[in-house]
Amino acid sequence: MKKLRIVFMGTPDFAVGILDTIYKNNYDIVGVVTVADKPAGRGQKISTSAVKEYSIANNLPLLQPTNLKSEEFLAELKSLNANLQVIVAFRMLPEVVWNMPELGTFNLHASLLPEYRGAAPINWAIINGESKTGVSTFFIDDKIDTGAIIMKKETLIGKKETVGELHDRLMNLGSEAVLETLSLIENEKVTTTIQPENEELKTAYKLNKDNCKIDWTKSGKDIYNLIRGLNPYPAAWTYFTEGENEWNVKLFEVDFVEENHSFNAGSTNTTKKELKIYTKDGYIEVKSLQMPGKKKMETKQLLNGISFSDELTAK
User: Fold this and answer.
1) What is d(CA 5, CA 27) in angstroms, rounded to the nearest whole number?
2) Which of 83, 187, 200, 298 is the residue whose CA sits 20 to 30 A from 243?
3) What would the mean pLDDT of 300-315 be, rounded to a whole number?
4) Number of domains forming the structure of the chain
5) Using one digit for the tens of pLDDT, what is the confidence trace for 161-196?
6) For residue 82, what are the domain limits?
C-alpha cells in the first residue's frame, strides 16, 4: 500500500468541500495551492479564495503563486515532496507541474466526461436541459479535461433543480469519487479509460454577460432552463423597459407555464403580487429578482412598492 503525500490545488467553495473530505479522512496533505489574493468588487477590497480561508483555519501549508512556471514556485512545490496532486476547480497546469509527482496528478471535474469539458459544467448541464450529470476523476494531460478517466459517478438532475442546488449535491458526490480514487491509487488498483473523441461533444463554455442574457424569442422551456442554470450565480438577466425607462434586471426563482396566448414574446402582465413575462408558448412567472442597485427580493415585495404599466417589456 502506497503512503500518499498529497498537494491539493483549488480555489472556490466547491473545492473546499473536497479538501475538507480529504482532510477529515486523515490523508497527509503536505501543501495546498490556490489563487493569489486580488482586489474585487466596487470597493476593490482584497479578496481571498475559499480554499485559502479553509487552509489557514486548519493550519495547512499554503502556496499562492502568480506564475505556475516560476522557478521559485517550482522549487517550493518540489520541496513539499508530494507523490500525488489532486486538482479541483483550479486552472490549467503546465506539464512541469502536473508531471512532477511520482503517482501523477488527478482532477475532479463536475460532469460525465468527455461531455461538458470546460469552465462551467454544472451550469451548462442545466441550461441544456440534461436529465443527468455527474462527476469524473481523471489523470491530467496537456489539454483541458481530456486525460484518462479513473472513475465516474452519475446523478439525476431534478426538473426544477437550480445550479446552486446541483452544485452542492455534486460537491458531495465529488467527495465520494475523490476518496474512492485515492483508495485505488494507494492500493495500486487504478485502471483508466481513454476518453473518446467526436464532434458531437457538448462544451461547458465560460459564462459571460452575453450568454447569460435571456433571449425572449426562445421557447419557454429553454428560457426556464437558462434561468435555473444560472441561479444563484451568475444569474440570468434581461432589460425591463417602460416608456423611456430601462433597467438591467436579474431573475432568480421562476416557474414556466405552457399555454396558448396572443401576447408578443417579452410582453408582461403584472398584478400587485405577480409578474408574468410571455414567451411564444406560455409565460415565465417571476418569483424573485434583483433590480439595479438593490438586493435580491421576492417579486411580490417589489410590486408592493412599485407598480408597472402595461408598457413594461422584457427584452
Assistant:
1) 8
2) 298
3) 88
4) 2
5) 999 999 999 999 999 999 999 999 999 999 999 999
6) 5-186
> Residues 37, 177: one domain?
yes
CA dihedral 256, 262, 265, 271 (to 10 degrees): -60
Can you tell me which residue has the cell 468588487? 41
Give per-residue pLDDT as tens, 251-268.
Answer: 999 999 999 999 999 999
Partnered with residue 298 across adjacent β-strands are 288
pLDDT tens, residue by residue, 78-112: 999 999 999 999 999 999 999 999 999 999 999 99
C-alpha cell at 28: 497527509
Contacts of 236 (CB under 8 A, 6+ apart): 212, 213, 214, 226, 227, 229, 230, 250, 251
Can you state the angle between helices 50-57 and 13-24, rounded to 10 degrees? 30
For 82-100, b/e burial (b = at least 16 CB within 10 A) is: bbbbbbbbbeebeeebbeb
Per-residue pLDDT band at 42 (split at 50, 70, 90): low
**Taking residues 27-39, what's their average pLDDT?**
94
Residue 193 DSSP label: B
Query: What is the secondary structure of 261-278 as a DSSP string?
Result: --PPTTBEEE-SS-EEEE
Tell me which residue has cell 424569442: 217
Q: Are strands 117-118 and 38-40 parallel, antiparallel or unpaired?
A: unpaired
> Domain end: 168, 186, 204, which one?
186
Residue 197 confidence (pLDDT): 84
Burial class (CB in 10 A: 0-12, 13-18, 19+), 308: middle
Q: Give Dmax over CA atoms of the chain in angstroms.
A: 72
Task: Report the distance separating Cα 196 and Cα 221, nearest Å.
Answer: 31
- Domain assignment present for 203: no
Cα(first)–Cα(last) distance of the chain, in Å? 61
Could you tell me the CA-to-CA distances from 130 to 101, 115, 170, 193 in Å, in that order? 36, 11, 15, 24
Retrieve residue 214's grid coordinates.
435571456
Q: DSSP 3-state assignment of 100?
A: coil
Residue type, 57: A
d(CA 274, CA 303): 8
